[in-house]
Amino acid sequence: MTQLSREGFTATRATQVSPDPEQIIDIPCADAFSIIVQLEDFAAHRLWRGRRLSYSGGYQQGNVSLPFMGDELRCQHRSAYDNLRLNIPRQTLDQLQVELGSKKIDMFHYEQGGNQDPVLYHLAQAMLPALQRPDRVSQLFIDHLLLAMCSHALQRYGRLRPASGKLPASLTPIQLRLAKELIASQLGNDLSVQRIAQECSLSRSHFSRAFKQATGVAPHTWLLQMRVERARVLLLQRPAIPMVQIAQDCGFADQPHLTRVFTRLTGEPPSAWRNRHQPPTLLPS
After folding, report:
1. For residue 141, which of 247, 198, 217 has the smallest C-alpha distance?
2. Helices (DSSP H) in 200-269: which residue ranges?
3. H-type helices in 101-203, by residue range?
4. What's the confidence (pLDDT) of residue 63?
5. Is 174 helix (H, G, I), strand (E, B) or coil?
6. What percent of the chain is helix, strand and coil (3-state, nearest 5)?
7. pTM for the complete prediction?
8. 77-104 mean pLDDT
């Protein structure tokens, strides 16, 4: 089991090849919701709400469940399973619904074992590397995934009713400049969507949508692009500096993190990029 805990949610990947098929697990009650995405086929499972058997059956890869954790849940894993569970306190979900201008929900409406959701499956896959190496993931990236998963769940399963007033589609030039300058000045820090949104006097969800509308990329992608741009400058201006120091100065977790992101965005590793852009050595006459 791997887990990532941040303020406002917990993400857990639960995997078991040979569970005890007779064990019944009491799930702690909480005023929270779960978004559970099946990463592999799950052949046999039982779920109780209180004393009532609520579901007995299997799930296909990509199936989702969205239970309320205050329903006195008990479960029985009768076959191998691998899933991602996002636990979201009601307060976190309520805050997002206020930002979206919608009414608060009491539950998600879904068919147990029957909901194929490619959007949530794709977002769950994107979150898996963050669970393996949480030190390498930025708060902007986590915020982006949390907002995307919760917004989609609310719209599809919460019967979210959008606000009647239409929000501006993009940022004003001043807001966009503020956001870009704040990201550029905090390359080495764990900047959150909330912080940037506050500077722009917007909600998190509105800012994330508007920033992508204005730039074509999500805030965390912009942050990575700025880190790589900073690395390029250092590679040219300070050719003798060790690669591990460049990674640290640009806000990457370590040298492999720098190499992986740099290669993905530029098409070649930083060492090769630096060698290709170094001026030719003059031979003595």
Report:
1. 217
2. 204-215, 219-237, 243-249, 255-266
3. 118-132, 139-157, 173-185, 193-199
4. 96
5. helix
6. 45, 20, 35
7. 0.78
8. 89
